[in-house]
Design goal:
- The structure holds 2 protein chains of 2 kinds.
- Chain A is of the alpha/beta class.
- Chain A has 2 domains: 143 residues, Response regulator (Rossmann fold, 3-Layer(aba) Sandwich), CATH 3.40.50.2300; 204 residues, Rossmann fold.
- Chain A is built from 13 helices and 15 strands.
- In chain A, strands 2-1-3-4-5-11 form a 6-stranded parallel β-sheet, sandwiched between helices. A 5-stranded parallel β-sheet of chain A has the order 9-8-6-7-15, sandwiched between helices.
- In chain A, helix 4 crosses helix 5 and helix 9 crosses helix 10.
- Chain B is mostly helical.
- Chain B has a single domain, classed as ABC transporter involved in vitamin B12 uptake, BtuC (Orthogonal Bundle).
- Chain B contains 14 helices and no strands.
- The N and C termini of chain B lie far apart (62 Å).
- The relative contact order of chain B is 0.20.
- The chains are: A alpha/beta, B mainly alpha.
- Chains A and B meet through strand 7, helix 9 and helix 10 of A and helix 1, helix 11 and helix 12 of B.
Chain lengths: 392, 318
Amino acid sequence: MQRFFIFLALCILSLLPALPAAGKAAPRADKFVFGLLMVGPANDHGWSQAHYEAGREIEKQLPGTRMIYIDKVNPADRPGITIPMLADDLIAKGARLIIGNSDDMKDGIREAAMMHPDVYFIHISGDDVLTGKGGRNLSNLMGRMEYGKMMAGFVAAMTTRTGKIGYLGPLDNAETRRLATSAYLGARYAWTHVLGRPAADLHFKVTWIGFWFNIPGVTSDPTLVSRNFIDSGHDVIISGIDTTEALVVAGQARKQGKKVWAVPYDFRGACAEAPDACLGVPWFNWFPGYRLLISQAMAGKWRPQFLWLGPDWKDINNPETSAIGFIRGSALSPAAAAALTRFQQGLADGSVNLFTGPLNFADGTPFLKAGERATDSQIWNLPHLLQGMDGH
Amino acid sequence: MEISLADLLAGVTATAAPLLLAALGETVTEKAGVINLSLDGTILLGAMTGFAVAATSGSLAAGFLAAAATGLAVAAVLSLIGTWLGQSQVAVGFTLTLLCRDLAYFLGSPHARQPGPQLLASPLPLLSRIPLLGPALFNQSLLVYLSIAAIPATWFFLYRTRHGLVLRAVGENPAACWARGIRPRLVQTTATLAGGALVGLAGAGYSLALKPGWGRPQGCEGIGWIALALVIFGGWHPLRVALGAYLFGFLQISTILLQDLFPALPTQVFQVAPFPIMIFTLILIHAGRNARGRKQRFLLRLFRGRPPAALGTTYRQD
């Protein structure tokens, strides 16, 4: 017993030299410090890493800026920790602008913005500016990923041999519905307009796991859901979640001789985990939006804005200018790639607008009449999935 | 989603494999009277180590060995502090699970979401073509075969060998064993190390086979607690522990399928279902143990099981 306590005391003593160093993290006054709150890990090869890398790019390209960040801001990793608490912490470390990168931070960011009117806040994927719930120091930023998802659906339908596409959805809300719907519309366009097949022969199944990534005991297991997709004949899986399980499972199945593919999401480097199964990845580039809003804050020209930034159609993968892009995967066939190029040209010049009626909701009620085009507001607030999609 | 029965069974067998290894490892440990609560952290640390070593060396075997060694090392710490220094096994195990979890995330960060080797299926000739059972049992990875073989092996060791008898005796009454010339601490240490190695192997089962790759979340968080519950559910008997592992695997898969059958129910109901069902099962066991009436005696028979008498207690040899 005595030996144990001596051992314990030695362990504690060995840690003491580290304590003064921990206390030295004082803010540097010469920098414009911006804080980033990320829902997942900074190296998730998905949503959070895309934000992290944009922040690092800001540090390189906007002289005088410095990023501080807290990742894994979610109920599973940090139970009981609130967004205002973390915002207080970042502000104490010198942050003059704070970015919250998840839709479920909406209330917390709004509250923190009200508590700190002299600090700027950016809420990613929210719409407080549109609804008038945010203050003068709060802006919203989002990319028009609908285009990216349309491309994902397009390549999925061009590739599938069974006509069955699985969509690995996170949780059911307006954002995820419009993204899943965009993927479906892209798939349906390829299936009917390019391949000339009847729409009824295309099966598009959506399964929601319950959150943006796997939390055991809280969400369905995305690995199992992906495997079930494959077992039930779906040969292309489109991921709507922040992590790469769909691609990993597809890659594993391919190694066992199955002809299956996947389309990951969020991060331009996501295909690297299983390149031979990857048809491409729709990716977010947060740098242009960050640069715009942070520059305005630094110059004292801040105003509350709702920014829903689209692709730079001249080069949708231009890291300087395009807010969303689509990196083609090595598993994409030359014929599908050529068709995708034509599809992208149609989207760019407006000759292809997939949110055009007639479109019905899944329960049969009309969404858009024949020839009617959806407004941004109708797309942003999409209340249900569309007819032709199998999902709950 | 429509899945054939053969695919469903194959999915259950594969899903349950690492959980089964961890639960059987804990069964062996607890049969010797030692409770190892570090399972959840050990599985994560084993998953990380296994993946990191396999990815770096390019050898799956090295990855699995490293994971087993990691589990063994964590168990050695528990054994040293719990069995030999006489501290609370529960406190040490719980602390270890938190330490191992954070170590896994911290040390594994450079390997997050990186491609790495994967253990693929090795179909057994002819047997894999048997309808229904072929895909479920004989078209699997070596890990699944190992997990299936571990069930009768563990049972045989515990109930049909002299060493197994000694191990169980130590778990019941270490003082009496000491009087008979057996060294209880040595037996407990051996059982803890063997159980820990199996738990570490289960970790690699996730990162190299079932959920290939490493990242946060890895997807096997919480599994260690389920394995601990399964040992109780199984009444410390390897066959019933295995049954529990397959039940949990079935629940995990079937709840995804049930979403289609009951579209009116919120999806969250199905997502959390396997966990409360396991808790409900534990309540049934408790009811079974306290059964007095005729109907209750049925429960007693169904869930009969008694923890080793010396479980969690510290044997002071002097």
